[in-house]
Amino acid sequence: MILGIDLGGTNLCIGLVEDNLVKQAVSVPSFSPSFTLEQTLEYLADRISEVITPEVEKIGIGVPSVVDVEKGIVYDAANIPSWKEVHLKEYLESRFGLPVDINNDANCYAMGAYGKFPEDSKPEVLVTVTLGTGIGIGVVDHGRLFCGGNCGEGELGYLKYKDGCLEEYCSRQYFDRHGVQCHDAAKAALEGDADAIRLFDDFGRNLGYALSIFMYAYDPSHIVFGGGIANALPLFRPSMDAYLKENFPFAGNVERLHIEAQTSGEVPIIGASLL
User: Fold this and answer.
1) 185 φ, ψ to 5°?
2) Which of 12, 105, 205, 231 is the most exposed place for a label (fewest CB within 10 A)?
């Protein structure tokens, strides 16, 4: 049994995982922005203590930050003001007497998505794209998580695009700049609202451009979308697919590419357990 943890700026999700299945999970509010570092660590340890069992052999945790994977040091965690340099592995191993593995949350999502595929149809090269406040990219190459030299292999959302960067046009920020929530826009599009439909068509073309970059960089066999916006995949997929077919020079790669969405909250917990 492994304890998998998905630590976000809003929610802290903890689950007991066995054989890539979440046996039990809880979701509680994450740290208050006013918490000191010591308060956040105590809060995290208390929540773990409420779930952990004697059968747990290891703890895996995904955090929204750059991580020194070997030493388990977390740097400048997003939406956690007090987390500038946190020796999280050392703290948790001392507290619970178990081995602890830590990685970026997007990488944990990638491992979880990989784990959800049946054993006889695992992707050769999987690229995952979480569509949230920004975009997070994870890469699993023949079963092995690719982290790069500094746990920052997937930060392609910062590439220049139009008058900003990619993630401004391929995440929640795109809908924000149009003054609408993605959920509301999706509801309107499904009801036939022409403006909402055009909004998702444009979003899909932007994402198609982003996927072309990911394909040049990683040559994936599979791409999996996560995050809340991924629930609207049927609305933006037609224009996204059309962009790739019209603009990506290697037609065979586009035809063989498998694209799907995995939006279950269990995916990053499973991924953390697989670190």
Assistant:
1) -65, -40
2) 231
